[in-house]
Amino acid sequence: KKTKDQLVIDAGQKHFGATVCKSCGMIYTASNPEDEMQHVQHHHRFLEGIKYVGWKKERVVAEFWDGKIVLVLPRDPSFAIKKVEDVQELVDNELGFQQVVPKCPNKIKTFLFISDEKRVVGCLIAEPIKQAFRVLSEPTGMQSPNSKECPRAWQCSDVPEPAVCGISRIWVFRLKRRKRIARRLVDTLRNCFMFGCFLSTDEIAFSDPTPDGKLFATKYCNT
Ligand code: ACO
Ligand code: ZN
Q: What is the ipTM of this complex?
């Protein structure tokens, strides 16, 4: 993954090197037929998955100049649930996560960031938890970009700390990253998770963070 990201050169060299699709964000080699075919498949499935038609009585919990955040709850109409499932599948696919079966599916809250182009460009899935384990310093060797160690081998404290809300997934569409979408999703979650109170950063926990997730979480929790 890392090498792919570093190869992004979109200088109009249509037939050499890596290209980033400006619609679906996939990085692929246009000169490689197999890659190109994978792209075509991904392209359609992805754009279909993030297409947002909306529904009557959608629960808009925040509005911004560049989009809005919609909250979906387990008892919502089936088309709302279907949209959440489609997006979650794309996200899990991208992250290489196994589908996890939540302990209390009826307590899951899903926040979707909808762009002005009517696309789901961000997703946050949260559930109530009772305790969390703090991530300690990174194991040595992780600092090296060439490290072959498992990127999720963070060291966790074995002392549980009380927590209220677990973020089991947070994802932002590749082409919309670093526009504070994740930050706005977490702010909105803290505001909406428990009626009448704004959760502190100590009360939320990120489960099994990826390197991106950890960078974001560290920054978010310190500001
Ligand atoms: N590298 C370094 N710092 C980062 C990164 C990064 N990749 N991403 C976020 N930050 C920090 C920055 O300081 C940023 O502020 P700045 O842009 O002003 O410098 C701050 O966090 C806020 O970032 P946002 O713009 O709100 O984050 P974004 O909308 O880009 O989304 C996310 C971050 C969700 C991690 C995104 O990169 C993503 O979807 N990655 C792929 C999926 C993933 O790995 N998700 C986390 C899985 S772990 C879990 O789900 C529990
Ligand atoms: Zn594409």
A: 0.98
